Amino acid sequence: MKLFTHNMLTSKMIKNVKVGYPLKLNAAEVKVTPSEFRSTYVSRMLPKIDWGVLYEATQSIGHAEAIPSSISDDYEKNEDFLRKAHHALFEIEVINGEMICPETGRKFPIKDGIPNMLVNEDEVN
Amino acid sequence: MKLKELESWLTRCEGFKKPKVKLEQYATSSHVAARMLYAAQENIEGASVCDLGSGCGILSIGSVLLGAQYVCGIEVDLDAINIALENYDEFFDEDDEPSPLDFINAELTISEGDNEDCCSRFNSTFDVVVMNPPFGTKNNAGIDYAFLQRALKLVHPGGRVYTLHKSSTRDFFKKKLTKSIEEFGCAVKGEVLAEVRYELPKTYKFHKEKTLDIAVDFWCFQKQLGSDTN
Ligand SMILES: C[S@@+](CC[C@H](N)C(=O)[O-])C[C@H]1O[C@@H](n2cnc3c(N)ncnc32)[C@H](O)[C@@H]1O
């Protein structure tokens, strides 16, 4: 699971959960695979990203140096920054681990790179 | 990529081993999948693609073959995701090969109303949704339309949804399109790009033939610019 995907997932479907975001990330196994860098694509995606959550995620899975703590103001012109953002969003993958709902503590396992977001009927609204 | 080439690649994709009837698990044939993706090709290359109800992954994998930058398959059934991963390995077997593909094992909320699910933050993010939704033939009438509504939320204004729906619902969909702001929360244009024959596997004992041949429309919907309310 890429950190881009983590940046999007919530536990909002659980009963009484108000925001369900961000999901706390714990990783037992992390893999880095290179992927093609397209600067226009990354700068197009950045407005969708919660940078603070991405930064926190890189910290919590042992890639503390991957990105700066705040987003660059001129990122569209800053290729060095975009490359780092690309690396964090699309190249660092959590293979095994879990995500935790910030409000209920409900755990969502990640196995073989697949996050399991399934919930039981009695957990949802 | 040429259509023939794409189709011959996609023939390598295996379908469901034990299809779950309730989930309407029938795989898109390589013939149909190749034509869908070929029509979407110029919008898929370098783009982000979502496959709703990705099943054994033929549409997700085809999107990767066409150079998508990020592909997200959302599927409720882990058995299907595992087949999709095996299929994927048929194409890209090196472990360090770049993979733009992520699967999420989740159940999309497709009931009426605006119930959020784990994927709602993806709204207005994708360039393209490709899907072959359940047709709604298993006591779940309307699920095909609910999938479409969901897909239109997931694409950004200007984004497109490539999808299959029974031809018998064409007039219904056309009517919905005339009041798209009400129905989808945004202005939407749609057209039927092709009518295809589709073989549904026999699932009822009283079906004499092994398969049921039905007419299916291949639609392209586009969320219009400046009309986003998500
Ligand atoms: C007709 S099959 C298509 C499979 C695959 N996309 C293909 O083209 O071969 C529909 C898929 O949607 C999945 N599905 C049905 N309801 C779902 C839901 N609520 N959330 C996620 N997936 C769902 C089923 O498990 C099935 O794999």
From TrEMBL, chain A:
Protein name, as recorded: Multifunctional methyltransferase subunit TRM112-like protein
Domain of life (superkingdom): Eukaryota
Positions of transmembrane segments: none
SUPFAM superfamilies referenced in this protein's UniProt entry, alphabetically: Trm112p-like
CDD domains documented for this protein: Trm112-like
Signal peptide limits: none
Family: Belongs to the TRM112 family.
InterPro entries documented for this protein: Trm112, Trm112-like
UniProtKB/TrEMBL annotation, chain B:
CDD domains the record matches: AdoMet_MTases
Coiled coil: none
Pfam families named in the record: PrmA (PF06325)
Name of the protein: Methyltransferase-like protein 5
Database matches in InterPro entries: DNA_methylase_N6_adenine_CS (IPR002052), rRNA_MeTrfase/Polyamine_Synth (IPR051720), SAM-dependent_MTases_sf (IPR029063)
Entries under Gene3D superfamilies matching the protein: Vaccinia Virus protein VP39
Stored PROSITE patterns: N6_MTASE (PS00092)
Domain of life: Eukaryota
